[in-house]
Amino acid sequence: TPLDRRYFDIRSLIITKNFKEALKQCEQFLQKNPDALKIKALRALALASVGEEPELALRIANEVRDSDFVDEHAGRALTEAYQLMGKPGEMSKLWERALKASPNNEELAVKVFMSFVAENNFAKQQQLAMTLLKHHKKDKYLLWAVASMNEQVTTTGPNPTLRLAEMMLSRRLGEADFSAHPSAFQLYISLLVKQEKFAEAHAALKEPKYFRMARTPRERLDLVISVLTAMSRKAGTERW
């Protein structure tokens, strides 16, 4: 369509860093087609790329984001614009709205999750990861949920959230079809250390079915050092 052709023409200008010409073409097109969301999104991206008029760039981006329909091209341009403006989490509102309309869309759900990551919204990350795990039964969503729970807790010692995360992960650890996730073992050790379960962490480091998940000798050594360091720190604190 003429709109798509114009979109890709302007997109090419932005890719080649010809931002002034991209802005000019956006403004010319929008004078005759003020509702062309793709072009408005590109205008926001061009403005953000130039670094001028940040308030205008944000206002245009928000107008597109809050409209009734945002297609893939406009969404990609908005994502880049918000990143340049230092507001990557703003896209979460768009993806959340889209996900409500298509609740079983795994790709959309992942986009929403990543927007929560950009916001450091650990509670929402956990909630959505659990939903993804329930509907799609993929181990990576279990890891996302457990990691999100781990990030929510900033203190050490016994904690019900960490305990639940530990239990969820331990059910899958060591199973043959889970060995492709070496980060899971690191996460498991992190959960134990944060709960100050040093004996359990030390035992896990000696357990072949767990320890083989650390891919290299260096990774295994780093895990041992992390446990010993945490134990030493705890002992020093108790002495004082």
Structure description:
- With 240 residues, the protein is an all-alpha fold.
- 75% of the residues lie in helices and 0% in strands.
- It is built from 14 helices and no strands.
- Helix 9 packs antiparallel against helix 10.
- The N and C termini lie far apart (73 Å).
**Unreliable residue runs:** none
Work out the number of β strands.
0
- Strand composition percent: under 5%
What is the residue-mean pLDDT, rounded to a whole number? Answer: 86
Spell the H/E element sequence: HHHHHHHHHHHHHH
Which structural class do you get from the secondary structure elements?
Answer: mainly alpha
Task: Provide a count of the helices.
Answer: 14
Radius of gyration: 23 Å
Main sheet properties: none
**What is the percent of helical residues?**
over 70%
Distance between the termini: 73 Å
Described by the principal axes of the CA atoms, the overall outline is elongated
Supply database-style keywords.
240 residues, mainly alpha, 14 helices
Summarize the structure.
Helix content is 75%, strand content 0%.
What layout of secondary structure does this protein have?
Blueprint lengths: L1 H14 L3 H14 L4 H14 L3 H12 L6 H13 L6 H11 L4 H14 L2 H15 L2 H14 L7 H11 L11 H13 L3 H9 L1 H4 L5 H23 L1
Helix pairs in contact: 1-2, 1-3, 2-3, 3-4, 3-5, 4-5, 6-7, 7-8, 8-9, 9-10, 9-11, 10-11, 11-12, 12-14
